[in-house]
Amino acid sequence: MSNFLVLLGDFYHPADRVGSFLAPLLEEAPVRLTVLTDPAAFPWDTLDEWDGLLIARDALLAEDGRRTDRLWCPPERQSRLSAFVQEGGGLLAVHSGIAQYPAGEAYRRLTKGVFTHHPPGALPLTVHPLNLRHPVMDGVGEWTTEDELYCVQRDPDAPEPLAELVSSEHGSSPAVWAHEAGRGRVCVLTPGHTEATWTHPSMRRLLYNALSWTARTSRIQEE
Asked: 92-126, pLDDT tens digit by residue?
């Protein structure tokens, strides 16, 4: 079984809250998940011992209850992450895993997109599939939840979205995309602020599919 390191916890998404949403998924996940909440303990020197990473935190460190402008993953560390993926590692970025990462730097080049803003609060949203042929979307139909409508800026070379978030009031925004990066694979899921989303069977299926695909353990082939 592949081993993935999960990094959780930022100012707006506390590790204890997100960790409680993730906990019920650990036993059934298609890969072995080890949760880390302290970015200072990130295993830079032994990164090659892992098969993949699930990043569900933004780029900025908090200190004394306040957000700072310091990155948990400065540029030289981002280059190490990029090399990890290019050499065959998997990367799954969930929700704030694409927030506050600077343009032009290695992590942003991996995810090919960044969070820009969201309308206030959790909204009634539809997650609408756009490409059911991709393994990440296997068995995932249209579903509804209440979550933040994450609006994103995607790079010109970003792949076509596999699904979108749709709000009757605020329009739509890409929700899922996935691509190859060297010998590795990257997938982005933008939903993930609320318990309603994390515990939804379709979100669970998306997460499991994305983990399998980025770990290259998926039995479902792309057409």
From this structure: 999 999 999 999 999 999 999 999 999 999 999 99
Tokens of 36: 């880390």
Q: The domain containing residue 40 runs over which residues?
A: 3-214
pTM for this entry: 0.95
Domains: count for the chain: 1
Which CATH number do you get for residue 203?
3.40.50.880
Q: Token pair of 114, please?
A: 């960044």
